[in-house]
Amino acid sequence: MPEVTVREMTLGEAVREALAEEMRRDPRVCILGEDVAEAGTPFKVLSGLVQEFGKTRVIDTPISEAGFTGIAVGAAMTGLRPVVDIMFGDFITLTMDQMVNQAAKVHYMSGGAWKVPMVMRATLGAGRRSGAQHSQSLHAWFSHIPGLKVVLPSTPYDAKGLMKTAIRDDNPVIFFEDKMMFTFKGPVPTEEYTIPFGVADIKREGDDITIVATSSMVQVALGAASLLEGIGISAEVIDPRTTWPLDEKTLIESAKKTSRAIVVDEGYERYGVTAEIASVIATGAFYDLDAPVKRIGAMHVPIPFSSPLEDATIPSEHTVFEAARAMCKRS
Amino acid sequence: MTTVTNQSKAHSGLGTEQLLSMYRQMVTIRLFEEQVNELYTRALMPGLAHLYIGEEAVAVGICAALHRDDYITSTHRGHGHCLAKGAAPDRMFAELLGKEAGYCRGKGGSMHIADPTSGNLGANAIVGGSMGIAAGAAFSAKNLGTKRVAVCFFGEGALGQGLLYEVMNLARLWDLPVIYVCENNLYNEYTHFSETTAGDILARPAAFGIPAESVDGQDVRAVYATARRLVDAARSGKGPAFLLCNTYRYRGHHVGDVNREYYRPKQEEQRWMTERDPIKLFGDWLIGQNLANKAQFDEILLQVKSEIEAAVEFGIKAAYPGTDQVEENIYA
Ligand SMILES: Cc1ncc(C[n+]2csc(CCOP(=O)(O)OP(=O)(O)O)c2C)c(N)n1
Q1: Extents of the domains making up chain B
Q2: ipTM of the modeled complex
Q3: CATH superfamily of B2-208+247-314
Q4: pLDDT at A330
């Protein structure tokens, strides 16, 4: 057995390492986006890549999200494996036709004749005091569309392994990174690994309540779980890691075991990811549940700028803790 | 930068055999579309059908300048493009009728014919929807050094879509081998293009530094000659081009659009059909040049007729896909 060496790195570094490794492995992989080359994106996630791979593979585009996303769709159909960078997830609105009506449907509409192996990297998450157009978590929109896959990494380890899988996937994959977690550190092995889509990860085992959490909300859920431990409640925290494909089995089994479930996601609560997952659990674990499944998402308001207001709109350790405590009927 | 090519003068370097094959293709598209109309009126064809009748010289002239592995993207009015690029009428009909033997196994239909073997990246039912895809195919052609060229067909109505201006800017910046072929058939659905299009169309690509020309879209030789020049330039690394083809659709926006007088006069339709018919113009020229005679045309007509009849029959007799296939091909 080769020795497994583990380093600490940030989520941003893990994404970059995955991209670099895949670009070394496969010359068809290229990156397109605004300020991706010398600038390495405003979040510096791509720093250094242009130096290694040159400007023909790390390509600065004009501020034309629909244009370069469309180019990526066509390039993916004809032999490249592009990764497009959408700086702020809020800007996916500008790419909607290319992703929803083109990328997602080409394979199906052509009866399997064409494939679209592309990745869209986008960000999500509030908390940066960036206002209503730079703070949203819009991953539910793409999760709604057949033909797309949606990835929500919550740790550097997951980010690296899932990004490598995304690049190797023959379908359009949207990879959402939480802006606030780019500097979040965690262990990442030096050895090559990938993480399959549709496999949830149990981030913490527990018996009394299941907390399903995505992306930015995984750390919130783990924080709440520690608080709950203090009052004698054992919480299990599960991260689906991909909203589509969705590992329904693991979610249902955990809920059956604990008999209570809360779903936490940073997207708008109404009609959101939490609704879908809650429905999966309510249907699959119905006879084992002691309480209705609880959903916690962003409030149904444009994300406000003012700090106290913004903080009020997003689920916190405290809100999750209180919800779990109430469900377990502890005071 | 902006020039107008009115009439092609010479044979454009085409031999008699190629000229006759182009003639035959135009007849094939015409008869194919007449069959579509027939199927539709007999309620045998579901959905929508946008006929290409009247515009045949554009698809045939452009595609004659392309290699089989060059790329095209097409539109809701796409049957002519697909046929001219090399699709077979039988599998086209099968697709139009939703049959498994169709190009998309029945999942695409009239507005979504796609065929990798003839470089057809797909027809698109979003007006302007494939402008980025065509540029993307040109991007990978350039990147992978395949020397392929991509042609993006679109109607003048798609000039209203912002995506065009994003991708023309990108195509020029990156010198992508993509040709934007605007088929101006005068109407965006039921509205004359002059009511929706400000300024000079050719000034738009010209503003990006993209060579822009216009051509008589009823003259297949002129279309071919111009396309040939633009395609060769793109193939040799000179980047994108824009070609405005002035043409006319004889029929309704779609087959159900029968009463059209509220948006265009019957006399206008008559004039185009009698004076500007692309098949007649080309046929007259071929005869005038002693390159063909009436008997040959009759022979071609007969052959194409029976080919189309066989193709329709193939489509009608073909089986529907089993419903077990409904969840196939969502993901690769
Ligand atoms: C984005 C979008 N908007 C509207 C439509 C509805 N629509 C279908 S065809 C058409 C007119 C297109 O005109 P043009 O591009 O000139 O093509 P033509 O039909 O004349 O060939 C419209 C508005 C559509 N399919 N897609």
Answers
A1: 2-208+247-314
A2: 0.86
A3: Thiamin diphosphate (ThDP)-binding fold, Pyr/PP domains (3.40.50.970)
A4: 78
